[in-house]
Amino acid sequence: MNQTTQRKRQGRLRIGTSGYQYRHWQGRFYPEALTQDEWFGHYAERFDTVELNNTFYSLPQAGTFDKWKEAAPAGFEYALKFSRYGSHMKRLKDPEQSLGTFLEAARRLGECLGPILVQLPPNWKARPERLDTFLAEAPKQYRWAVELRDPDWLNDEVYEVLRRHGAALCLHDMLEQHPRVMTADWTYLRFHGKRYAGSYSSQYLVAEATRIAELLHDGRDVYAYFNNDQKAHAPRNALDLRRYVQDRQ
Which PANTHER family does UniProt cross-reference here (predicted)? Predict the structure, then answer.
């Protein structure tokens, strides 16, 4: 009798930066000769994902999403930050309204639409019941990650809400000693630097790469974005981290 050993699925890694249209990257990441219209093509040759921040501040017109979709090479994914109207102004109230407006535009990306990051405001104490109601309204065909900026939210009751809805706890370094809790079968990492500046050391990135390689081995998809855009540290750190992970696979 033949026994077939099923191999665990290897998780997929996507590493990119938080935003890509930074003028101070020209001459550092983007060659001087490139026009601004050519920046995305240069970026997409090196990365297979980007986190878009402008969807947080104001929702672009539908045509902008169509242009993003058209520009993306095969297999490229956009991670979107959910609108601050829903997260910071409404504070997750009336989710059917804010979600409906946001997703009407976001779904125009089709297969290019990756995770949606809901960033909650600092100095707002935990309201797990409101998060529960919000995530219950969030369509499950999309991947949802939640970034908690107030440490009061970092508790087992909130983690259970995230697990119940299959939403990932965003692991980030804006809060000291942020717990590395997995609440979904995938995870979302954000590297903010020191107030969006400074470069991560090789030692730090190697340690992160070791953790990421373990997650991938366990079958978890990993999305990681660098937000230390000053002096173009973000794309350099992202490329280094990817190389370190590949060395461990």
Answer: DUF72 DOMAIN-CONTAINING PROTEIN (PTHR30348:SF4), UNCHARACTERIZED PROTEIN YECE (PTHR30348)
Distance CA 235, CA 199 (A): 10
CA separation for the pair 48, 134 (Å, rounded): 29
**Distance, CA of 11 to chain centre:** 16
Cα-based torsion angle of the residue sequence 63, 140, 146, 70 in order, rounded to the nearest 10 degrees: -20
pLDDT of res. 194:
85
Contacts of 31 (CB under 8 A, 6+ apart): 42
Give the helix ranges, DSSP H, for 77-193.
Answer: 84, 95-106, 128-137, 156-165
pTM of the model: 0.94
Q: Tell the residue number behind the tokens 């090479």, with chain if given.
A: 73
pLDDT at 249: 83
Separation of alpha carbons 111 and 77, rounded Å: 8
Percent of the chain exceeding pLDDT 90 equals 94
Residue 179 and residue 217 in contact, taking contact as beta carbons nearer than 8 Å: no
Read off the tokens for 225.
């974005």
